[in-house]
Amino acid sequence: MTTTIMTVPETITDTTKFYPVSNEWVALPEITGDGGIHSLNVLSESHKGMLEVGGDKNDPLLKPFIKVNGEPINIGAASWSRLEDWIPTFKVSSNETIMSGTIFCPNDQRGFVYLLDITNTGVQTNEYELGWLGNWQNTLFTVYHSRESTGANIGWYNRWTRSLTFEHRCGLPALGWALGLSEPLSDIKWHINHLQSEEETRKVSGESVNFQVSKKIRLDPEMSYQLALFVAVNSEADGASTCLIDLQRHGWEKLLLDHRQWLEAHRIISENNTHIAQICNLNGFFNYFFARGKCLDTEKLVLMTTRSPRYYVSAAFWARDAYLWSLPGLLLVDPEAAREALWAGSTVYWEHLSKHSLYIDGTELYPGFELDELCSWVIGLDQYLQVTEDWRLVEAIGLGLFDNFLVSLEQWQGDNGLFKTFLSPTDDPVRFPYLTYNNALVWRSLIIVADVYRYFGDIRRAEEIRRKAIELRNCIEENCIVRGPLGPMYAWAINESGEFELLDQPPGSLQLLEYYRYCSAQDEAFKNTVAWIHSSTNPHYYCDGLFQAPYCEHSPFPWVLSLCYELINGNHQHALELLSQAGLDNGIACETIDPLTGWVKTGAAFATCAGFLAHSLFVAIRRYGGVDFSRK
Length: 632
What we know:
Distance between the termini: 51 Å
Oligomer: single chain
Low-confidence stretches: 626-632
CATH architecture of the largest domain: Alpha/alpha barrel
CATH topology of the largest domain: Glycosyltransferase
Helix content: 25-40%
Radius of gyration: 26 Å
Number of helices: 14
CATH class of the largest domain: Mainly Alpha
Strand order of the largest sheet: 7-8-9-10-20-16-15-14-18
Strand content: 25-35%
């Protein structure tokens, strides 16, 4: 007898809007409306997770400022937008000045750029001071949750690279970062803890290392000035400072131009600029940059739910997330990224793929067998092949992995012919072990694996596996279709005695049976099942509020994934209208939303979900491309 112990998310009450941005090396997950960067993070394979550098809630790691004739401009009143639906930029105006800020992480660079641009809109010459205040207070280690390192935060002036250089040491260095400007530091006002020195300033993590870089200039009317801050990261300080020099050598103009051109070429929807298309592109890029990344210490690609600490189990790997949700989004942004993810699944993550959750290096983190996760990689491979027809990947992997998959499956087949699981798609213990959704995934996986054997010329083995798929389908139809409130429908789960459970869980919804080609949309049992899921007879359906949608015990609020399923094979237009009005996590996918406001309720900055949201929106936009879903 198993004990039902659930690990569930906490409800989010913070209403702060964030404007995250990232590349594969460094992420800025907590940029606020006043232009403050509250943290940066990098991935570390040796630490099996994420290392964060941050300030505190009221005094961020980096905060821009501008003074006009000695009077500060309130950047908190700025309006925000995104260039190419990704790069956050703000603009604020006063009687004398227009100021804008742009924060971007150039492709393939171990760092980011923060550009400030000011224009004198007055009628007289004005004196300006613009720059950044810094507060390095915390260095954190993150797997699921963030916790403080006990090492030292150290800062000094590096005369060799003419940069402000920082390093976190726990005995030996764990992380280095450095900053410089588009102007020589000799022309800049700067300090580290009010000193200009090559001597190290050393603080225990939790205490502040304060710094400032700023420039004073005079501008005549209609004159403009731009100042760029470059920040680079590496495994230690010298590497960070030399990466900084490389950023400065390229210059912010070229870095920004190249990055914008890459984004424009990889936007999912480029032919219209409606709000819903922008949400599709934003979530596609968020999935691309936050659900995958390169480790600073080994340069290996790793996959994760999200590299934002705002998610309640961040910086860890789930096979379901990677291959059922993230991969369809990656295919739309960059099929090569999808290929890399599949290769990582066949190597780094394969041994423990079916376990609840893994460290980013593929070792076991949270035990518990999940049947849908075992099938997820095969399902993702099929989607990749449908888009690319790139069978060279399958050839490189070889048949041994598919043999191993079939052996793993056999261990979980019951006497009734169905396959069981220990945990459900919500990662929680099951009441009955034979889930209809899971068995449909097994059926689909067997069909795909049979095609793989056929491709390699093993026709006998291919036919044998296909027969197993047919037998499994017969078992599903015989055992899992039950009489429900609206007529014959698919049960959520059954046991060996034939008892069944009427339920649905958004992370593995029965509404996806048609999506995974188990049945047609006109199948009577499927239609009744979907109608029941979205009805008041389903006890886990929010009937009140604008944002009505299914939920589950794991998180009892409307799920964004449920709206995705409606986009794919439900009431597409209604779901589009809801998503055009939902705030989500400032436009980015989250686990659940408030039924009244549409704003994030649990699971903020959910990168893999963002991938599936982008995919689902793309499917719906292709069908309703002529509809104007601008913000209401």
